Amino acid sequence: MKKILNVLFVALLAVFTFSSCSDVPAPYEILEPGSGNQDGVQPTGEGTKENPYNVVAAQQNQNGSVAWVEGYIVGTIENVYDEKGDFAGNKANFSGPFEIKTNVMIAASADETNEKNCLPVKLKNGSDLSNALNLQDHPENLKGKLLIQGKLAKGFGKAALIETTAAVLNDKEVGEEQGGNTPLGDEVNVTDKAPYAVSFASGLAGFKVENKVSEGLTGDVWHYSKKYASACASSYNGSKNVAAEGWMYSPVLNLSTLTKATLTFEHSSYRAGNPNELMLKVKESTASEWVNLTIPNYSDKRDNKVVTTIDLSTYAGKKVQLAFVYNNPADGSNNTWYIYTLKVAAEEGGQVTPPTGDDPFGLDASNPKSTLIADFNEVSQNNQNYSLEGWVNKAIQGKNVWQAGIYNEDKYIKASPYKVASGETMETWFITPAFKVDAKNKFTFDCAGANWQSDMTLKVFFIQKEASGSLTKEEITVNGIPISGANYTWAKDLNVDLSAYNGKVGFVGFQYVVVSKAATKSLPTYQIDNVKYGQGGGTVEPEPEPQPQPQPGDKVYTSNIKLPEGTSTDANKASGGTVSVAGTEYPILKLGTGKALGFWVSPALKAGSTKVAFYAVGWTGKKGKLTVTIENGGSFDGGVTSKDIELNGATAGATGNPPFTITPADGDYYEFTLTGITASSTIKFSTEKSTSDKRAIVFGINVK
């Protein structure tokens, strides 16, 4: 009755306010099974190719299943960058120009412009689907009717279709169809000799999460907690607790060979556990109804970890699925639940052993994969500790782990000793899930480095976990890992030769080691991208290479625009060359001679650029002037089109011939805000106003 009254109220509200499609009242933003959305559009379809879901049904069936969805292509989700050039979120683009190839949005109407009524569809970069569907290359696809298959799961923080593999656009088939709807999670065989044992110390261990009630939360109810090395459920949104209900589902557990089974898990809670709020359920894989399992013992505080054992023999010989359920009603206790380990075995399993000295990573080899990929396209925040379900990111010495990196649309992970104490050794690992080595497959990755230091290393290991739980690590020599040369230059498709391990189950680990010099800029850095294991290895075309990416707090000496090459002076008295700072050489722009002015004009800038930053020095013991001018559209902040910079060689300057050895001062760094920049705008660097020495060296030119 309450729902009927709510619907009548919303309908009356729409009549009296003459709401348009882009002003849908808030109640429509919360989807409930069986309810409509998008101005009365009802969920339809079965998720099959013959009877696909419409967008409303796809938004409501975010259960991890593979399904077909139909709608009209109405735009894209594109990245937004702040005035510093750092990633600042996403926005919907309905009208173009479109600047991304890795997603489209679909809706029930070809004219939809309300993002709430759209379903983001992720497209694997370089795939047949991306090549055929993306709006950057094919703006004519806008408003085209699309039938597409993928996984119904969250993307861009909302209901989405991800892991897409097949589509039909304008009656043309693209990609390779998957084999129908799949159950939530993978299936795992549990036998007398092979129990199912997982630790949540480094991720959700293959469990899937679903929010039933989460209004007011900024993330999922169930999530991985790095701080407490657990799967964690909470109703706290950063400022207060809200009503929340979340489910965390196990893979399907195949107990068909067992005659008895026992479930054991370790957990704790922030305050005393309430069986109406912290629940465990089970169902047979083909059933629709969940059955409550009685939890006989609860914790009463976070540090009081308890081990619970439950007899599952009723389900021996069957396929089952488990679900941890966290329910915090409006008048609930605002508890937090932590799950640390879980084990299902043929007899009493006991506690799952957490990582020890023999296995500091907590690796799980019980469910090896056949293929792997980490392209980091899901990264949304720069300089944040990176986490990917099933993969391990762990510091062994020091506290730094691999972090996410973003530059323009390029996404990767990176390791550096930022804020590590001087003289302290940093060692951090990034490790794949377990996989079985197959001779027909290849393992490849991309790698770049910067600010080379003699003791910085990136090594690759094949790791095996013995029955005793201890690890064996064998280093694999990978040809092509950069150890010197230009900063941030990518080495592509580096091959990890696993031929000696054919048929074995193991992990590949990337180990970064360096001794910190306590620097906060120009840090010794390694970057990794496009980690792949499968047939052909790195055959998917990666996103464009990132330009040099500043570390936190850096004023970088590299440039993201092309500078003159060679040391020969051109007709404008401009040339290239290098400058040596702290033993590392960087490209420069050199202007003028002692008596002849010089000038140089940059390549055209990217429309919408908002900042230019650079270092500029004159000659040692000399005074000069550098003039920087915006030409062909745009200006500096305040409307002026030129800036004059006094160069005083008393602070830092050049002498002799390139490479010039310079120790830049803070006063040699310049940063200006730009406005109104177009695709025709350029920057002119000149010494034309200098009345004394007419030379200048400019480097670290970065336009964002």
UniProtKB/TrEMBL annotation:
Biased composition (Polar residues): 557-576
Residue span(s) of domain Endonuclease YhcR N-terminal: 53-167
InterPro entries: YhcR_N
Keywords: Lipoprotein
PROSITE patterns: PROKAR_LIPOPROTEIN
Region described as Disordered: 534-576
The UniProt record lists the keyword Iron: no
Keyword Lipoprotein: yes
Protein name according to UniProt: Lipoprotein
Organism per entry: gut metagenome
Lineage: unclassified sequences, metagenomes, organismal metagenomes
